[in-house]
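@channel sequence for tomorrow's demo:
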Amino acid sequence: MKIKGQVKFVDNDKSKFFMTLKKRVDNYFTENNISKHANGAMVIKTIVLLAVYIVPFLAIVIIQPSFLVMNLLWLLMGFGLAGIGMSIMHDANHGAYSANNTVNFWLGHTLNMVGGSVTNWKLQHNILHHTYTNIAYMDEDIDDKLVLRFNPHTKVKAYQRLQFIYAFLFYGIMTIYWALLKDFVQFNRYAKNGVNPAGKKEKRILLARMIIDKALYFFVSVGIPLLAGIPVAYVLTGFLLMHFAAGIILTVVFQLAHTVEGTTHPLPNDAGDIENCWAIHQLNTTVNFSKGNPFLTWYLGGLNYQVEHHLFSRVCHIHYPAIAPIVKQTAEEFGIPYLENKTFGIAFRSHMATLKRFGKLPDIDEALA
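structure tokens (generated this afternoon):
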């Protein structure tokens, strides 16, 4: 894998698109005397989503209902867990939730509720994904995952013809893999390839904190119910159900923004350059969906407004519906595609079609030979 800094964006056309867009978006907030950070509606959402995760857990431990009801509560926790990831931790770790870094720090650590590591997440998401979106071998979010192929620049395997069928099984194990192994794999990789620039002492401290955080996560999520006398089978079944639901939600939502028809997967030239400006690259690799669905917009933390998020990741997602018309109009003025799927269903079908296409494409090197 190439390390951060080996690929750069070269704007040969000297586009003024992002300069113009940024000025217009800034003017929107200034003229309306609105903060770019969270408002009252965002605070209420935060409380609701945290409650959807915490209250069912308390009910499981204290009331200890029947096996069926208990699993329904674990399932509800899965929806809460995904909502926290999309709406709270995501904004906070981008520095978008609040102008107060302390608030962002603590809300960002709600990532611990899935057993994740904030430092690793910021390196993977804020740096690699948001800088090198859809660039193979740089954006880890489109790297091949075990038996899944998410970009057209890797070797196709025969069984990937069926990935549009079996993908969702692997989507469902995403968060449990994250809690158990992913952070340790990433920690080792980032230490070796230079993505994590910290010194040896800092890395040892990070690793120790990661181990402690994960131990606390599993103690609370699994240990406390067991200590409360809930049968092991009940706890493990519910815990895995919660993660399976959260994994499918989080993975599908992300894939609907990047692994769909219409997006590009450019490769750098021999000099390591992407011949485009960064902002236009984001528009070419990112797709909105279901902008007209108020519930999805609320629950998904604005991730259905991925275009706006990639261009203005330090703006709280609560404002994306308001700035989206500005982004779309400016893109149209500059002749830049503004990609969007009108409904969740259309976006989902597009993702399925892309999984099928990537499962059938030949190796790019062979195709060009």
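heads up for whoever presents: The chain has a mean pLDDT of 93.
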